[in-house]
Protein backbone atom coordinates (compact mmCIF):
# COMPACT_ATOMS: atom_id res chain seq x y z
CA UNK A 1 0.00 0.00 0.00
CA UNK A 2 1.31 3.44 -0.85
CA UNK A 3 0.26 6.05 1.65
CA UNK A 4 1.11 9.74 1.26
CA UNK A 5 0.24 12.28 3.90
CA UNK A 6 0.76 15.99 3.93
CA UNK A 7 -0.68 19.00 5.64
CA UNK A 8 -1.22 22.27 3.84
CA UNK A 9 -0.57 25.47 5.77
CA UNK A 10 -3.58 26.14 7.96
CA UNK A 11 -4.26 28.61 10.76
CA UNK A 12 -7.16 26.93 12.49
CA UNK A 13 -8.19 23.43 13.41
CA UNK A 14 -11.05 21.47 11.91
CA UNK A 15 -13.00 18.43 12.96
CA UNK A 16 -12.48 17.17 9.42
CA UNK A 17 -8.89 16.64 10.43
CA UNK A 18 -9.75 13.81 12.81
CA UNK A 19 -9.41 11.23 10.06
CA UNK A 20 -9.46 7.79 11.60
CA UNK A 21 -9.63 4.54 9.71
CA UNK A 22 -10.48 1.53 11.86
CA UNK A 23 -8.17 -1.18 13.14
CA UNK A 24 -4.41 -1.10 13.03
CA UNK A 25 -2.26 1.87 13.97
CA UNK A 26 1.06 2.00 12.17
CA UNK A 27 2.32 5.46 13.11
CA UNK A 28 3.01 6.80 16.54
CA UNK A 29 3.57 10.38 17.52
CA UNK A 30 7.27 11.04 17.93
CA UNK A 31 8.74 13.77 20.10
CA UNK A 32 11.57 15.92 18.75
CA UNK A 33 14.78 15.37 20.77
CA UNK A 34 16.61 18.31 22.32
CA UNK A 35 19.45 18.18 19.82
CA UNK A 36 16.79 18.36 17.12
CA UNK A 37 15.48 21.63 18.58
CA UNK A 38 18.99 23.08 18.41
CA UNK A 39 19.23 22.03 14.78
CA UNK A 40 15.86 23.68 14.16
CA UNK A 41 17.27 26.99 15.47
CA UNK A 42 20.33 26.69 13.24
CA UNK A 43 18.11 25.88 10.28
CA UNK A 44 16.05 29.01 10.91
CA UNK A 45 19.18 31.18 10.87
CA UNK A 46 20.37 29.56 7.65
CA UNK A 47 16.98 30.11 6.06
CA UNK A 48 17.15 33.83 6.78
CA UNK A 49 20.49 33.96 4.95
CA UNK A 50 19.11 32.33 1.82
CA UNK A 51 18.31 34.45 -1.19
CA UNK A 52 14.70 35.52 -1.47
CA UNK A 53 13.25 36.44 -4.85
CA UNK A 54 11.01 39.36 -5.70
CA UNK A 55 7.79 38.60 -7.57
CA UNK A 56 4.72 40.62 -8.45
CA UNK A 57 1.20 39.87 -7.35
CA UNK A 58 -0.31 39.46 -10.80
CA UNK A 59 -3.81 38.56 -9.67
CA UNK A 60 -5.83 38.25 -6.49
CA UNK A 61 -9.47 37.21 -6.31
CA UNK A 62 -11.81 35.46 -3.88
CA UNK A 63 -11.77 31.66 -4.06
CA UNK A 64 -14.21 31.04 -1.20
CA UNK A 65 -15.30 32.71 2.02
CA UNK A 66 -12.11 34.21 3.60
CA UNK A 67 -9.97 32.32 1.08
CA UNK A 68 -8.16 34.01 -1.80
CA UNK A 69 -6.56 32.86 -5.03
CA UNK A 70 -3.17 34.55 -5.53
CA UNK A 71 -1.12 34.45 -8.73
CA UNK A 72 2.55 35.45 -8.45
CA UNK A 73 4.50 36.52 -11.53
CA UNK A 74 7.94 34.90 -11.21
CA UNK A 75 9.24 35.82 -14.67
CA UNK A 76 12.05 37.81 -13.02
CA UNK A 77 12.91 34.86 -10.77
CA UNK A 78 13.24 31.91 -13.16
CA UNK A 79 15.01 29.78 -10.54
CA UNK A 80 11.70 29.43 -8.71
CA UNK A 81 10.08 27.91 -11.76
CA UNK A 82 12.92 25.50 -12.47
CA UNK A 83 13.13 24.32 -8.85
CA UNK A 84 9.39 23.61 -8.65
CA UNK A 85 9.28 20.10 -10.07
CA UNK A 86 6.81 18.07 -7.97
CA UNK A 87 3.26 18.66 -6.69
CA UNK A 88 3.30 19.13 -2.93
CA UNK A 89 6.29 21.47 -2.78
CA UNK A 90 5.94 24.79 -0.96
CA UNK A 91 7.70 28.04 -0.12
CA UNK A 92 7.54 31.07 2.15
CA UNK A 93 5.99 34.37 1.10
CA UNK A 94 5.91 37.86 2.58
CA UNK A 95 5.07 41.39 1.51
CA UNK A 96 8.08 43.26 0.10
CA UNK A 97 6.85 46.78 0.87
CA UNK A 98 7.62 46.61 4.56
CA UNK A 99 9.21 44.19 7.01
CA UNK A 100 6.65 41.54 7.77
CA UNK A 101 6.55 37.92 8.90
CA UNK A 102 6.38 35.24 6.26
CA UNK A 103 3.85 32.48 5.75
CA UNK A 104 4.41 28.98 4.41
CA UNK A 105 2.28 28.26 1.35
CA UNK A 106 1.76 25.09 -0.61
CA UNK A 107 1.95 25.74 -4.34
CA UNK A 108 -1.46 25.13 -5.89
CA UNK A 109 -0.62 25.35 -9.57
CA UNK A 110 1.09 22.43 -11.31
CA UNK A 111 4.82 22.70 -12.14
CA UNK A 112 4.02 22.84 -15.86
CA UNK A 113 2.27 26.19 -15.40
CA UNK A 114 5.39 27.72 -13.84
CA UNK A 115 7.50 26.48 -16.73
CA UNK A 116 5.05 27.61 -19.41
CA UNK A 117 3.69 30.93 -18.09
CA UNK A 118 6.15 31.96 -15.38
CA UNK A 119 3.60 32.09 -12.56
CA UNK A 120 2.92 30.33 -9.28
CA UNK A 121 -0.60 30.13 -7.85
CA UNK A 122 -1.60 29.81 -4.22
CA UNK A 123 -4.73 29.34 -2.13
CA UNK A 124 -4.48 31.52 0.98
CA UNK A 125 -6.83 31.80 3.95
CA UNK A 126 -7.00 35.36 5.24
CA UNK A 127 -6.63 35.66 8.99
CA UNK A 128 -6.56 39.17 10.45
CA UNK A 129 -3.19 40.11 11.90
CA UNK A 130 -1.34 37.23 10.27
CA UNK A 131 1.21 37.15 7.45
CA UNK A 132 -1.42 35.44 5.31
CA UNK A 133 -3.82 38.28 6.05
CA UNK A 134 -1.23 40.81 4.86
CA UNK A 135 -0.85 38.98 1.55
CA UNK A 136 -4.61 38.77 1.05
CA UNK A 137 -4.93 42.53 1.58
CA UNK A 138 -2.38 43.40 -1.11
CA UNK A 139 -3.23 44.90 -4.48
CA UNK A 140 -2.37 43.57 -7.89
CA UNK A 141 1.01 44.85 -9.07
CA UNK A 142 2.52 45.04 -5.59
CA UNK A 143 5.70 43.12 -4.88
CA UNK A 144 6.11 40.07 -2.70
CA UNK A 145 9.20 38.19 -1.63
CA UNK A 146 9.35 34.44 -2.11
CA UNK A 147 11.78 32.01 -0.55
CA UNK A 148 13.33 29.16 -2.52
CA UNK A 149 10.98 26.27 -3.25
CA UNK A 150 11.16 23.64 -0.51
CA UNK A 151 10.26 20.03 0.07
CA UNK A 152 10.36 16.88 -2.00
CA UNK A 153 6.70 17.00 -2.94
CA UNK A 154 4.45 13.99 -3.37
CA UNK A 155 6.42 10.87 -4.17
CA UNK A 156 4.23 9.87 -7.11
CA UNK A 157 6.46 6.91 -8.11
CA UNK A 158 5.26 5.18 -4.93
CA UNK A 159 1.93 4.53 -6.68
CA UNK A 160 3.49 3.36 -9.93
CA UNK A 161 3.32 1.42 -12.13
CA UNK A 162 -0.32 2.36 -12.57
CA UNK A 163 -1.74 -1.19 -13.00
CA UNK A 164 -0.34 -2.19 -9.60
CA UNK A 165 -2.23 0.62 -7.82
CA UNK A 166 -5.73 0.68 -9.35
CA UNK A 167 -7.22 2.53 -6.35
CA UNK A 168 -6.16 5.94 -5.04
CA UNK A 169 -8.09 7.73 -2.28
CA UNK A 170 -7.48 11.44 -1.68
CA UNK A 171 -8.67 13.28 1.43
CA UNK A 172 -8.48 17.07 1.76
CA UNK A 173 -9.95 19.65 4.12
CA UNK A 174 -9.97 23.43 3.87
CA UNK A 175 -6.96 24.91 2.11
CA UNK A 176 -5.45 21.44 2.13
CA UNK A 177 -6.98 21.22 -1.34
CA UNK A 178 -4.19 23.50 -2.59
CA UNK A 179 -1.42 20.90 -3.15
CA UNK A 180 -4.09 18.39 -4.18
CA UNK A 181 -4.99 20.66 -7.09
CA UNK A 182 -1.35 20.56 -8.17
CA UNK A 183 -1.31 16.77 -7.88
CA UNK A 184 -4.52 16.32 -9.89
CA UNK A 185 -3.62 18.79 -12.63
CA UNK A 186 -0.09 17.42 -12.93
CA UNK A 187 -1.63 14.02 -13.51
CA UNK A 188 -1.03 10.58 -12.04
CA UNK A 189 -2.89 8.48 -14.62
CA UNK A 190 -6.19 8.77 -12.75
CA UNK A 191 -8.11 7.92 -15.92
CA UNK A 192 -6.26 4.59 -16.10
CA UNK A 193 -7.20 3.60 -12.54
CA UNK A 194 -10.70 2.19 -11.91
CA UNK A 195 -11.23 3.79 -8.48
CA UNK A 196 -9.85 7.27 -7.76
CA UNK A 197 -11.80 9.35 -5.23
CA UNK A 198 -11.38 12.79 -3.70
CA UNK A 199 -13.12 13.31 -0.35
CA UNK A 200 -13.08 17.09 0.09
CA UNK A 201 -14.30 18.47 3.41
CA UNK A 202 -15.41 22.00 4.30
CA UNK A 203 -17.89 23.63 6.64
CA UNK A 204 -20.23 24.63 3.82
CA UNK A 205 -20.18 25.35 0.10
CA UNK A 206 -19.28 28.98 0.75
CA UNK A 207 -15.97 27.79 2.25
CA UNK A 208 -15.16 25.23 -0.44
CA UNK A 209 -12.63 26.51 -2.96
CA UNK A 210 -12.10 25.27 -6.53
CA UNK A 211 -15.70 24.22 -7.18
CA UNK A 212 -15.27 25.67 -10.66
CA UNK A 213 -12.55 23.06 -11.32
CA UNK A 214 -14.58 20.01 -10.29
CA UNK A 215 -15.82 19.16 -13.78
CA UNK A 216 -12.31 19.35 -15.18
CA UNK A 217 -10.99 17.11 -12.41
CA UNK A 218 -13.80 14.62 -12.91
CA UNK A 219 -13.03 14.49 -16.63
CA UNK A 220 -9.53 13.31 -15.70
CA UNK A 221 -10.95 10.25 -13.96
CA UNK A 222 -11.45 11.43 -10.37
CA UNK A 223 -14.72 11.00 -8.49
CA UNK A 224 -15.26 14.02 -6.24
CA UNK A 225 -17.20 13.61 -2.99
CA UNK A 226 -17.79 16.99 -1.28
CA UNK A 227 -18.41 16.55 2.46
CA UNK A 228 -19.95 19.44 4.42
CA UNK A 229 -19.90 19.56 8.21
CA UNK A 230 -22.44 22.40 8.53
CA UNK A 231 -24.44 22.56 5.30
CA UNK A 232 -27.73 24.34 4.83
CA UNK A 233 -30.99 22.41 4.60
CA UNK A 234 -30.88 22.24 0.80
CA UNK A 235 -27.66 20.20 0.70
CA UNK A 236 -28.27 16.67 -0.64
CA UNK A 237 -24.71 15.40 -0.59
CA UNK A 238 -22.49 13.92 2.12
CA UNK A 239 -22.76 15.44 5.59
CA UNK A 240 -20.39 15.32 8.52
CA UNK A 241 -16.69 14.69 8.13
CA UNK A 242 -14.53 13.03 5.53
CA UNK A 243 -13.72 10.04 7.74
CA UNK A 244 -17.43 9.31 8.20
CA UNK A 245 -18.14 9.67 4.50
CA UNK A 246 -15.35 7.25 3.69
CA UNK A 247 -16.61 4.79 6.30
CA UNK A 248 -20.04 4.81 4.68
CA UNK A 249 -18.56 4.10 1.27
CA UNK A 250 -16.96 0.99 -0.11
CA UNK A 251 -13.81 0.15 1.79
CA UNK A 252 -10.45 -0.80 0.34
CA UNK A 253 -10.69 -4.17 -1.38
CA UNK A 254 -6.94 -4.78 -1.60
CA UNK A 255 -4.81 -2.47 0.59
CA UNK A 256 -1.60 -3.56 -1.11
CA UNK A 257 -2.89 -2.16 -4.39
CA UNK A 258 -4.15 1.12 -2.92
CA UNK A 259 -2.65 4.58 -2.63
CA UNK A 260 -3.87 7.28 -0.25
CA UNK A 261 -3.15 10.99 0.07
CA UNK A 262 -4.24 13.16 3.03
CA UNK A 263 -3.96 16.95 3.10
CA UNK A 264 -5.43 19.19 5.73
CA UNK A 265 -4.83 20.77 9.09
CA UNK A 266 -2.08 19.87 11.53
CA UNK A 267 -4.36 17.58 13.50
CA UNK A 268 -4.64 15.31 10.48
CA UNK A 269 -0.97 14.46 10.89
CA UNK A 270 -1.04 14.07 14.67
CA UNK A 271 -3.65 11.36 14.80
CA UNK A 272 -2.87 7.68 15.01
CA UNK A 273 -3.39 6.72 11.40
CA UNK A 274 -4.97 3.30 11.08
CA UNK A 275 -5.03 1.16 8.00
CA UNK A 276 -8.38 -0.49 7.19
CA UNK A 277 -7.06 -4.02 7.41
CA UNK A 278 -5.53 -6.12 10.16
CA UNK A 279 -1.76 -6.63 10.09
CA UNK A 280 0.65 -7.25 12.93
CA UNK A 281 3.11 -4.35 12.75
CA UNK A 282 5.93 -6.63 13.84
CA UNK A 283 5.49 -8.71 10.71
CA UNK A 284 5.49 -5.93 8.13
CA UNK A 285 8.37 -6.61 5.81
CA UNK A 286 9.24 -3.04 4.88
CA UNK A 287 8.14 0.41 5.93
CA UNK A 288 9.88 2.55 3.35
CA UNK A 289 9.90 6.25 4.16
CA UNK A 290 8.47 8.77 6.57
CA UNK A 291 9.23 12.38 5.69
CA UNK A 292 8.04 15.05 8.11
CA UNK A 293 8.40 18.75 7.39
CA UNK A 294 7.62 21.03 10.31
CA UNK A 295 7.07 24.62 9.28
CA UNK A 296 6.34 27.78 11.19
CA UNK A 297 5.20 28.61 14.72
CA UNK A 298 1.89 26.84 14.16
CA UNK A 299 3.77 23.61 13.48
CA UNK A 300 1.96 23.17 10.20
CA UNK A 301 3.23 19.84 9.05
CA UNK A 302 3.85 18.29 5.67
CA UNK A 303 4.20 14.53 5.92
CA UNK A 304 4.87 12.23 3.04
CA UNK A 305 5.13 8.60 3.93
CA UNK A 306 4.79 5.33 2.11
CA UNK A 307 4.00 1.89 3.49
CA UNK A 308 4.91 -1.06 1.35
CA UNK A 309 5.15 -4.72 2.21
CA UNK A 310 8.34 -5.88 0.52
CA UNK A 311 11.30 -8.13 1.08
CA UNK A 312 13.35 -6.61 3.90
CA UNK A 313 12.96 -6.60 7.64
CA UNK A 314 10.85 -3.84 9.21
CA UNK A 315 12.59 -0.48 8.84
CA UNK A 316 11.47 2.96 9.99
CA UNK A 317 13.42 5.91 8.64
CA UNK A 318 12.46 9.37 9.84
CA UNK A 319 13.78 12.52 8.22
CA UNK A 320 12.59 15.87 9.49
CA UNK A 321 13.07 19.02 7.45
CA UNK A 322 12.66 22.41 9.11
CA UNK A 323 12.61 25.49 6.91
CA UNK A 324 14.17 23.52 4.11
CA UNK A 325 17.06 22.00 6.08
CA UNK A 326 17.41 18.31 6.74
CA UNK A 327 18.27 16.58 9.96
CA UNK A 328 17.76 13.08 11.19
CA UNK A 329 16.53 12.78 14.79
CA UNK A 330 17.17 9.79 17.00
CA UNK A 331 14.28 7.32 16.87
TrEMBL record:
UniProt xrefs under PROSITE patterns: FAD_FR
GO molecular function annotation: ferredoxin-NADP+ reductase activity
Superkingdom classification of source: Eukaryota
FAD-binding FR-type domain: residues covered: 50-157
GO CC terms: chloroplast
Pfam families: NAD_binding_1 (PF00175)
UniProt cross-references to PANTHER family, sorted A to Z: F9L1.8 PROTEIN, PTHR47215
Protein name: FAD-binding FR-type domain-containing protein
Organism, scientific name: Amborella trichopoda
